[in-house]
Amino acid sequence: MDFTEQSFFETNPQAGSVGQPLDRVDGRAKVTGQARYSAEFNNLPGLCHAVLRTSDVAKGRIQSIDASMALKQPGVLAVLTHQNLPKLAKTPNDPEGKKAIGAPMGFMPLTSDVVHYAGQPVALVVADTLERAQHAAALLKIQVTAEAPIASYEDKKAQLFDPEKVQDGKTKARTVRGNPQQAFAAAPVQLTHTYDHAINHHNPMEPGATTAHWEAPDRLTVYDATQGVTRTQKALSTMLGLSAEQVRVVTKYLGGGFGCKGSSWPHTVLTVQAARAVGRPVKLALTRPQMFTSMGHREDQTQTLKLGATRDGKLTALIHEKTSTTSPWDNYAEPNSKIINILYECPNFEATYQLARANVMTSTFTRAPGEAPGSFALECSMDDLAYQLGLDPLEIRLRNYAEKDPSTGQAWSSKSLKQCYQRGAELFGWSKRNPKAGQTRDGRLLVGWGMATASYPVHNNQGTARVRLYADGHALVQTGATDLGTGTYTVMTQVAADSLWIAPDKVRFELGDTKLPTAPNSGGSVAAGTVSSSIYMAAQDVWQKLIKVAVLDKKSPLYRAKAADVEVKQGRLQLKSNPQKGESYADLMKRAEMSDVEGNGQGRYGSGYEDAQAAANADPTKKDEAGNHSMHSFGAHFCEVKVDPDLGTVRVTRWVSVHGAGRILNAKTARSQIIGGSIFGIGSALMETTVRDPNYARYTNASLADYHIPVNADIPDMTVEFIDEKDPYINAMGVKGIGEISMVGVAAAVANAVFHATGKRIRSLPITPDKVLATKPMQV
Amino acid sequence: MNNFSYTQASTAKEATGIRKDQPAAAYIAGGTTLLDLMKANLEEHPQLVDINMLPFKGIEQTKDGLRIGAMERMSDVGEHPLVKEQFPAVSESLLLAASPQLRNMASIGGNILQRTRCGYFRDAAFPCNKRVPGSGCPALQGDNHNLAILGTSESCIATAYPGDLSVALAALDAVLTLENAKGKQRRVPVTEFYLLPGNTPQKETVLEPGELIVSVLIPATAHARRSTYLKVRERASYAYALASAAVGLEVQGGTIRSARVALGGVGTTPWRSPEAEKALVGQPATEATFRAAAAAALRGAQPREHNGFKVELAQNTLVQALLKVA
């Protein structure tokens, strides 16, 4: 099928609801408490509760676990430790096992007596009530021989090493394009700066939570807070030695994820093992402190960026080095350099990654993994370059505008960045900017304006969906996707409605269950494009099946027409050449005594930039053409801050984000998602930091009182717009996804605004009052 | 959290009587801090004595000032017209604290007794001299970014009182009325209520076992009327102070007649500064005077690796607060 011609915006230009700000279809269920999250399946027969006991120390060996007191408590059913937990069929403790499971961490707690990190689960207590389980867990006496841990790459005991690959083997640890060292040495303008990024935690409102129910010895149902039911199904079935079909994973609603629910972490399989041990359904919800040591984090890291440029501001070299902390087993680092490689025209590029092992769990993707910290370094240095050359920060970006992907030389599938700059500047009033830093005041407060570019790739992915259209004009639409809370239920309802020419309230859309057609993880901004395209393609399958029935039906006006000559408009099957000749699907189905017709579809996402071969899953007839394109979303943020020069406090007072991200499926949920991502970024810019004690390698602020995320009072009114963008290559719906890009560049926009306000260049996140006070203004 | 029994007391005598029989019992009012501590296994109490029915209520004008019952809620006191009019610093300190939900629950007595946010105290996995005397203080060589620079010892550098209200109360010479098991009452100024950590950081106040806070009396003065509370924190709301200042001034003809200064977020206790007050009284109400007072207030500061910024921040906070009421 030629998906350029068949793409949604060509075939269905009168789309009734796609793009409209339809209210959330799941809104009522959520505000009335009808929506059930993974820890809310409380009516399972004999449901009991599990509580994790975690390690106080970060390194050592468990000498003994005395459970006698705990086991004496009323209602306590089991205390599970490495000593009595039945062995898993496969663990991630070796690379082969890790790969087979798809585990985010090459270590499974409770498989030995070794303690590798503070907060590592060392026991699981199961009781008939939550309170009894909590109490019994506190009564366990655990003797550990503690050793001095390594806390981070900054630890004097830490040994830096050069890995071959990072990010679980997905990213090469060294990339060179052109002749960067020579080009930098020869550059008339040279900037070398170091950027630090604090540890960040995802902290979704809903913690990690699992309810496990063995319905039979070979039939398991797991309600799990996961961004991907299929990935969790694979992990669990592999570890348990079951076939995938024997494990059902359900996630009807998710209270946020931001990446921490993108993989199956140890607590999920431990809950399943606990349920098997006690022969009853078991529920486990991580506590907030446990959320800091159970589902990964954004690693502590430092980046050095060398930027070479001509006197008129054209980049000639970019050299990026990242050093970060990883766990004792895995070589994980988020790939910061990728955005640095593609954002601006620059002929010479180099990126290297260094790691140090420490007594921490493995870090994991956190919203805009790599792009968020990478863009912080690049976009602050671009700002420096602009000031140094006396150019407007927007102008320096236009001078280095990449008309094609600098990393591959490929044409962009679509790119609306210039329009994003222009519209953003217009909405913000950027032209009125005072070119000098530290010159604008509002009373005592210093006022600053900053901007930054955003970009995020369209990752390679595919998924499937099933559409059943009933003769009465209702439809059941199903796919095993996950709604993180961002609006998947709503936008997919809209896509189904328009694809089937029915009203959204006639669509029943179901997701979040491995019984449904397989969909990808909701992560990396792949869900919107892949799932919408799957549904669109499944609807086309429905129409093709009906057309076949019509052309074979003697009573149909379309009898003996060629199927290829028939089209569907407004739910009517008609001849392309003579639209008068045709009939409605309802008439056809009634006459044919069909109660319903079912279609299946596969949505193919375009290629991610990490795979230059591209389009492995794209339509074969268009594979080469699609594969020759680099696929990205782009955007721009504009930020105003007010800084108290005496107290060092920074408040964001105005915000404008404009993005070009392909088709926008719902104006309201999309705007909300960009606002959410921007706030996420403002949090990382101004306040979010998890502090790991340098001697104990244990966090000192593992709570939402002490780990600060923005509150309403920190956030101003935000302006969000989208550029109308039609991309014929990425997928049938032309959707790029917006969950990740919303955060990229945000921290840099804030830091650049702080610089404009104060003349202080703060290259360490978060920008807290202590750093504002301690930093001296730069001489520009 | 351990199992505990719960008893509701209707009189002070009943409440203190239970505590006398069961010394490990704890009083509970709003519960906003006690339950957190119990859930984190930082405090264990076999019994909780609910004192919400005790008649420690009322916000009343007396001939000397204002009397506030210890069972009044933070939100009610903070919003009270008499408090706003006569003691703006007290009202502001209450309304800048916590969140509306917490302020609606938390009592004045409980606020005065809230415990430190030091991360090492709040996590039983760490040693902590305040929690387990003699076990050590990891904060000295660890994360001390938001810990104290005044009144510290080698045993403890926690801001033992992390809140706001007592800073305003310390500045404005408030006096607490306490009642013991014998029904005997005594009065203790807020400035003498909190103890420096020294070698006994586990002992935080002069409250005797079982003794209850009955009320707070704040004297009505000219400087109280002209007072304010300035709080600096890492986000705009729902955060503890990095530094705060409660100040009151009486200014006549440009000259400071009387001054009250206390700092929060920088001392191990709500930090009244007689040094700053001395530098203010009799001087012109100018920024230069305020800078000199701020320098005097922080003269004895002993910063650690991560909290050196508090010296400058506390000085600037104090100056800004004084400028506001000058």
Provide a descriptive summary of the structure in words:
Chain B: Keywords: FAD, Flavoprotein. Chain B: It comes from Hymenobacter metallilatus. The complex is a heterodimer of chains A (780) and B (326). Helix content of chain A is 26%, strand content 25%. Chain A is built from 21 helices and 33 strands. Chain A is globular, with a radius of gyration of 27 Å. In chain B, α5 runs antiparallel to α8 (165-171), α11 runs antiparallel to α12 (287-297) and α12 (287-297) crosses α13 (309-325). The radius of gyration of chain B is 19 Å and the shape is globular. The mean pLDDT of chain B is 97.
Q: Give a short account of the largest sheet of chain A.
A: 7 strands, mixed
Can you tell me the overall shape of chain B?
globular
CATH superfamily name of the domain at 222-325 in chain B?
CO dehydrogenase flavoprotein, C-terminal domain
**In the CATH hierarchy, what is the class of the domain at 411-459 and 618-780 in chain A?**
Alpha Beta
Radius of gyration of chain A equals 27 Å
The largest β sheet of chain B comes out as: 5 strands, antiparallel
Helix content of chain A: 25-40%
User: CATH topology of the domain at 411-459 and 618-780 in chain A, what is it called?
Assistant: Aldehyde Oxidoreductase, domain 4
User: Could you give the distance between the termini of chain A?
Assistant: 58 Å
Main β-sheet, spatial strand arrangement of chain B: 4-5-8-6-7
